[in-house]
Amino acid sequence: MYSKIALASVLFAAAKGQQVGTNTAEVHPSMTWETCTAPGACTTNNGKVVLDSNWRWVHDAKSGSYTNCYTGNTWDATLCPDDATCATNCALDGADYTGTYGATATGNSLKLDFITQGASSTTPNVGSRLYLMSDDKTYETFKVLNQEFTFDVDVSQLPCGLNGALYMVNMAADGGLSSTNKAGAAYGTGYCDAQCPRDLKFIEGSANVDGWTPSSTSVNSGVGTKGACCAEMDIWEANSISTAYTPHPGPSSIDVCTSDQCGGTYSSDRYAGTTDPDGCDFNSYRQGDKTFYGPGETVDTSKVFTVVTQFLTDDGTATGTLNEIKRFYVQDGTVIPNSESTVAGAGGNSVNVDFCKNQKIAFNDTDDFNAKGGFAKMSTAMAEGMVLVMSLWDDYYAQMLWLDSEAYPVASDPATPGIARGTCATTSGSPATIETSEKSAYVTYSNIKFGAINSTFAATPAKRSMLGATAGRPQRAA
């Protein structure tokens, strides 16, 4: 719902570059996932993952001196006097995935550590963002209309203030490879999302040096003049306390914006851009069920569970228009439909056309979702194919209070509909605190499956037909 900020802090500093360095060989970790046509009829795909380029070392591409192009939260004035020169001068290098960035892929599983102290680093790395690849030069793209997407997740070690996010965005499959971007998907370039992020070091083969303002709260990041907008489907944003899933309509390919016209988290006018930065979110706690999700609750976050998301269309085909996004969980052999909203005027247990209108009214929120095209715009984005993102991050802008706190905005009355998001104190989530106190935090994503509706999780046909009528009551899986 808010920004997935690139907050890497390593020996050579995080940046996004366009040339390719040769100091460290780039070897993409393997990660398998499955395509399903019916229950039990799934085929294994041999995929890979790649680290986002904003976490990588960027250095002088020409002299062989390996001078940093970006140190702390500032650019080198000699190597990067302007956008074009910087893109020419700077090389993006390979990554030590586990040792430096805490990203470990094993079989069908990807574990992301929050804090990683590399053997050669004097400062730790914070979080990470990775993309699923179909091969070493290409991101995997998913067309989710009339399909379902399923994965297992372990959020047991994610406290207040952290977000283990699995989502999809309309990035180019080749990472924006071009005459000015020699790195491409092989080095994790081309990111965009619904916040039109302006903390990206390079966008579309050009640096973001001009107008760059170092952050006053983060020693590693800043905001440039340019931003990168596109549609976003937040399948999963969560810690052990709260979770939300949220479609954000926007352009179906990267749209480069300028300054406050970008909108989103980084701009003074949140709704000025081409995307919907708020989206239409379903957070069970925010929708009134305060015992559905969390440690020891109906969905017990102290244990691994399965998340099933169905993207239903108006005509039941992959060429139809998205009109409902349904959610199920599976834990200990039990299929658990999503919680029922108890908010007056905004009931139901799915994100659908009526819900996304009524919720905005009930919560007195700006309805930028429908203003930016709603489900029709999301349908166009999904039909183009979206890239899968798996990340772990903390929030320098709002301390993740929009996801998990007792009140957001913090000065609001928690009894007001839509204000309470979870049980975390409004003083929680400070990156300065959790980067010290929660060094062992991690999230694990595994067992990804994608395919026909009702093909990726275990339940008998009879019990599947009951799920829509028994929302909120667990069904024992076959």
Q: What is this entry, summarized?
A:
This protein has about 475 residues and is mostly beta strands. Helices cover about 10% and strands about 30% of the residues.
Describe this structure in words.
The chain is 12% helix and 32% strand. It has one domain (19-476): Glycoside hydrolase, family 7, domain (1,4-Beta-D-Glucan Cellobiohydrolase I, Chain A), CATH 2.70.100.10. The longest helix has 11 residues, at 353-363. It is mostly beta strands and 478 residues long. The radius of gyration is 21 Å and the shape is globular.
Task: Summarize the SSE layout with pairings.
Layout: E1 19-20, E2 30-38, E3 41-51, E4 58-60, E5 70-71, E6 74-75, H1 83-89, E7 90-92, H2 97-101, E8 103-106, E9 109-113, E10 115-116, E11 125-126, E12 128-135, E13 138-139, E14 141-142, E15 147-154, E16 162-169, E17 202-203, E18 206-207, E19 213-214, E20 222-223, E21 226-229, E22 232-238, E23 243-248, E24 255-258, E25 293-294, E26 299-300, E27 305-313, E28 322-331, E29 334-337, E30 351-352, H3 353-363, H4 368-371, H5 374-384, E31 386-394, H6 401-404, H7 431-437, E32 442-452, H8 461-466, E33 475-476
